[in-house]
């Protein structure tokens, strides 16, 4: 379950990270730096022990594990999506535009 959620998060943040608008790009960069820069065990422990103190409600161990896997894998998928989109040659985009595709379709 966590990997499926992480895949969705990764696509979302990966597309945000290539946006030209700094205000939209910043959260994706922060997300990637935090969740790729800390060990997953630290994330699990923080979600299970630290987050309940912040929100004032207990978190089940399975929920904490799924959340940690989702957030961690989402950060790595985000980098894969960002790199994949940025690796598309400008000529490919121009070829799509010359065929009548819109900017969003290319």
TrEMBL record:
<dbReference type="GO" id="GO:0006865">
    <property type="term" value="P:amino acid transport"/>
</dbReference>
<keyword id="KW-0812">Transmembrane</keyword>
<dbReference type="InterPro" id="IPR035906">
    <property type="entry name" value="MetI-like_sf"/>
</dbReference>
<dbReference type="Pfam" id="PF00528">
    <property type="entry name" value="BPD_transp_1"/>
</dbReference>
<dbReference type="InterPro" id="IPR010065">
    <property type="entry name" value="AA_ABC_transptr_permease_3TM"/>
</dbReference>
<dbReference type="GO" id="GO:0043190">
    <property type="term" value="C:ATP-binding cassette (ABC) transporter complex"/>
</dbReference>
<dbReference type="InterPro" id="IPR043429">
    <property type="entry name" value="ArtM/GltK/GlnP/TcyL/YhdX-like"/>
</dbReference>
<keyword id="KW-1003">Cell membrane</keyword>
<feature type="domain" description="ABC transmembrane type-1">
    <location>
        <begin position="1"/>
        <end position="106"/>
    </location>
</feature>
<dbReference type="GO" id="GO:0022857">
    <property type="term" value="F:transmembrane transporter activity"/>
</dbReference>
<protein>
    <submittedName>
        <fullName>ABC transporter permease subunit</fullName>
    </submittedName>
</protein>
<dbReference type="InterPro" id="IPR000515">
    <property type="entry name" value="MetI-like"/>
</dbReference>
<keyword id="KW-0472">Membrane</keyword>
<keyword id="KW-0813">Transport</keyword>
<comment type="similarity">
    <text>Belongs to the binding-protein-dependent transport system permease family. HisMQ subfamily.</text>
</comment>
<comment type="function">
    <text>Part of the binding-protein-dependent transport system for glutamine; probably responsible for the translocation of the substrate across the membrane.</text>
</comment>
<keyword id="KW-0029">Amino-acid transport</keyword>
<keyword id="KW-1133">Transmembrane helix</keyword>
